[in-house]
Write a structure and sequence with these properties.
Structural class: alpha+beta
Radius of gyration: 23 Å
Helix content: 25-40%
Number of strands: 20
Low-confidence stretches: 1-15, 353-357
Subcellular location: Cytoplasm; Nucleus
Strand content: 15-25%
Keywords: Cytoplasm, Metal-binding, Nucleus, Transcription, Transcription regulation, Zinc
Order of helices and strands: HEHHEEEHEEEEEEEEEHEEEHEEHHEEH
Number of helices: 9
Protein name: Mothers against decapentaplegic homolog
Distance between the termini: 61 Å
Largest sheet: 7 strands, antiparallel
Organism: Steinernema hermaphroditum
InterPro entries: Dwarfin (IPR013790), MAD_homology1_Dwarfin-type (IPR003619), MAD_homology_MH1 (IPR013019), SMAD-like_dom_sf (IPR017855), SMAD_dom_Dwarfin-type (IPR001132), SMAD_FHA_dom_sf (IPR008984), SMAD_MH1_sf (IPR036578)
Shape: globular
Amino acid sequence: MKFENLLGHHGTAVAKRLGWKQGDEEENWSKKAIDSLMKKLQKHNKESMLMLEEVLKTEGRTPSECVTIPRSLDGRLQISHRKALPHVIYCRVYRWPDLQSHHELKAIETCRFCFESGQREICINPYHYNRVEAGVLPPVLVPRYSERPPLPVPYPSSENWATVIYYELNNRVGQQIPVASHEVIIDGFTDPAVSSNKISLGLFSNVNRNSTIENTRRHIGKGVKLTYAENQGTVFAECLSESAVFVQSRNCNYIHEFNPSTVCKITSGCSMKIFDAKVFHTLLSNAAQRSFDASYELTNMSLIRMSFVKGWGSEYQRQDVTSTPCWIEIHLHQPLMWLDAVLSKMGPAPNPISSMS
């Protein structure tokens, strides 16, 4: 069965997961992985192929049987010159694009042919495995398709919806910048004109700036455009620079079922939704019913970190955003106000942290 035919049966589930790729991997890797699987199932287990189609349609909401392929000599499967464990490959393709290793997977109790069982057949049913924390840094993900913001509503706003703070390595540079305009461009130029919809990082001075930072600043160029759709409570980022920008948004990662620490790479000309207030509001409502700590933990979801030109993560020399030459932190006001209102009603934390803790 060809990939195009496969999409005809359960295109929504497949296309959703193929909207992302890991790092700079080739565009066709996931398609080749699916083609390889279809050939194996047609040859060895046609009934499982129908089972897989049904599983993907229902997204695992109903109990399903194992979908198996023969185990190779070393247990791995090669797709386009890359070898990996079969259940990791197809859990990555169909469920978690940021999945990095088998240490992040645990088979459900009813899976009879899970990889750990050591049998001749391996279950690759993506809904026969659960995601577990493995203490590894997830890879950088790159959206293949742009998520465009809705048409801007032509009315001014005097309310600041965000604050932008600029950093070079682990040093804050300049003052906090309030943002009121629903569209704001953050570039690397030195335009001295005061504008409510532009932040030029080239104007910021730093006596401790090194040559790496200087070189990075020269490549920021047109930078990034942030669009705030107030009526929907969404924030979009569009890369205007020839160099990519790298975004870490826990809200975005939650929407796509990624690891909370995942970094997304937005290439030139691409746009991505980096925050959705409706999602945050739902999570906050649920957390408020559980505990003070669960609610307070959502503070991290109101902060978005974005680096210019240089990325960070498992596939980069820099493991933390504070190691990148030029980056910004975006503080979103609305979710912080919601959070503050909820925490105020809940009273002080049950186990406050102090110097005596």
